[in-house]
Amino acid sequence: RNENPEQIKKKLASMTNGSLKRLRTDYIDILLIHDVRTNDIAGNKAIIEGMTDLKKQGKVKFIGISTHANMTEVINSVIPVDAWDVILTSINFTLANDAEFMEAVEKAGKRNIGLIGMKTLAFGSQWPNPESRGNYSTSVVASALMKWVLHNKNVATIMPACNNLNQLNEDFPIAYNIDYTDEEKELLLDNSIELSMGYCKQCSICLASCPNNADIPTLMRTHMYATKYVDFNLAQSALDEIKRNHGLDACALCNNCMAQCVNTVDIKNRINELKTIYA
Predict the structure, then answer these.
(1) Do 10 and 146 have their domain in common?
(2) H, E, C per residue of the chain
(3) 160 and 249, same structural domain?
(4) Which domain, by its residues, includes 46?
């Protein structure tokens, strides 16, 4: 944001050329501006020109943005801009009752923007209250949640996380048959399931409840990478994003976490787990 337009375009070109060289390819199918959280990026003239130049040069086929937080605001900022082809957004069944978000998804679909869903499982196979799963197997949980997203006609495809080939082999058949089994229907109709999953929607409402101004959304993302993905490099990268005195150093000042989530995230427990991991 602090760079002039020409610097922005040169940086986009340089980063893309570097990626092409490392990938040993002539073009990239989809190039995204990563982790957009505000509504001032999609309409940025320099970014649009830089990205469209890459399309004209044949180095990129489709351009878009990815968003993990403030998704509704970001998606709505993309819709009126003709340049963008793709949006990569978090979407899962815990967001089903978020009317504004689902409306934004529908509007983007009607604009023929290719929506790619991520965080589709909402960590359903690893939610913090496993007893609530009852008789639901891990494979049923995963398939039900992925099918729920794919049933949305505005979503072109999904990008579920995979840690091994077995998970990949379980995921592929879902692309060919998204009809629900009876067990999957039962899971999706179970009112206790969403409440038990503790999915952080990165809404940032919790910030107002922290007396020490900790960056709770990023700490929750750090916890996700460390405990759900078991990717400590990614977790450390997220932790490093946090400004001094707004991370676990801020949390160290509290004997009892006062931060509150308006949804179902147990912030206190996750902060304590992070303190243990990074002690």
Answers:
(1) yes
(2) CCCCHHHHHHHHHHHHHHHHHHHCCCCEEEEEECCCCCCCCCCCHHHHHHHHHHHHCCCEEEEEEEECCCHHHHHHHHCCCCCCCEEEEECCHHHCCCHHHHHHHHHHHHCCCEEEEECCCCCHHHCCCHHHHCCCCHHHHHHHHHHHHHCCCCEEEECCCCCCHHHHHHHHHHHHCCCCCHHHHHHHHCHHHHHHHCCCCCCCHHHHHCCCCCCHHHHHHHHHHHHHCCCHHHHHHHHHHCCCCCCHHHHCCCCCCCCCCCCCCCHHHHHHHHHHHCC
(3) no
(4) 5-197
Residues 45 and 156 in one domain: yes
How many domains are contained in the chain?
Answer: 2
pLDDT for position 215: 95
What's the confidence (pLDDT) of residue 69? 86
Task: Say what the pLDDT of residue 187 is.
Answer: 86
Q: Which parts of the chain have pLDDT scores under 70? A: 1-2, 123-135, 191, 194-197
pLDDT for the residue numbered 53? 96
If asked whether residues 164 and 81 sit together in one domain, one would say yes
- pTM for this structure? 0.83
Q: Which of these three, 169, 197, 225, is where a domain ends? A: 197
Q: Please say which residue of 178, 197, 216 terminates a domain.
A: 197
